[in-house]
Model the fold of this input.
Amino acid sequence: MKKVILLFIFLCVNLEAMDRESTLNIYHGIFHALFANRQVSVYTLDRAYRDVFKDSPKISISETLENSDIALITDERTLNDVLYTMNGNTDYSKKPMLMVTNYKFVKVSDKIVAAFYWRKGRSQLLFIKKRLEQYDTILPEEYQKFMIDEL
Done:
């Protein structure tokens, strides 16, 4: 019985490591599409994402919204706080891009540029063309299929 329990614990730890690795690889690709060949500073309050990003050589965690390239938003309260903070700033060169992990959030504000979320067990990636243009960002060819003009 002890062997079975130890085997179960070992498998869970390995699955968690694989999940973290795949999540990190996905975000490396997305962030690389937005900010080619440079380290990206990400602001997120989500502890799970902070844990995933902390060991990445390509992603640094920003403690402040103002000093980040991307704000990764995972909950409604953070979304409201970020939108309130960014409300008066119209200079897109000084704003972080907003990316959400929930499709419903995309409809909340026209400041949200991208979404990466799960629907029916499948990952969904979405970029909004008109919003990306405000940041003078052009996606690489392989990400063009995930772009829509507007909602």
Summary: Residues 1-18 have pLDDT under 50 and may be disordered.
